[in-house]
Specification:
The chain is 17% helix and 27% strand. With 102 residues, the protein is α+β, with helices and mostly antiparallel strands. A hairpin with a 5-residue loop joins strand 1 and strand 2. It starts with 9 loop residues before the first strand and ends in a 15-residue tail after the last helix.
């Protein structure tokens, strides 16, 4: 029996923008994982909980779209987009990651 994987196709990527008065400031922008890879983005986090994610499927030979999944099972358990949260039947509420990516 195949294990169902968490597949999140949209994430946040870290970008930079000009600050008023000069210099740059970081900010997070929501993108599809495929677009983020095409744009050569390198820093990713979950768009729902801000938790750390790992990039998977970018070299898929089966034609599947690239995706991310939570690194921490606790993030998946309490993230609106997490597979464990979606399968839970205990009435839990979604919350931000205990260790968000800054």
């Amino acid at each position: 029996m195949a294990v169902e994987r968490e597949k999140i196709y949209d994430c946040e990527v870290k970008r930079r923008r000009m600050k008023e008065g000069g210099g740059y400031e970081p900010f997070w922008k929501v993108k599809s994982v495929a677009d983020a890879l095409a744009d050569a983005d390198t820093e990713f986090r979950c768009k729902d909980c801000g938790g750390a994610v790992k990039l998977l499927g970018k070299n898929s030979k089966t034609g599947g779209a690239p995706y991310v999944e939570h690194k921490d099972p606790l993030d998946s358990a309490y993230c609106f987009g997490g597979i464990i949260f979606k399968k839970a039947t205990d009435g839990r509420e979604a919350k931000q990651s205990a260790h968000p990516v800054e």
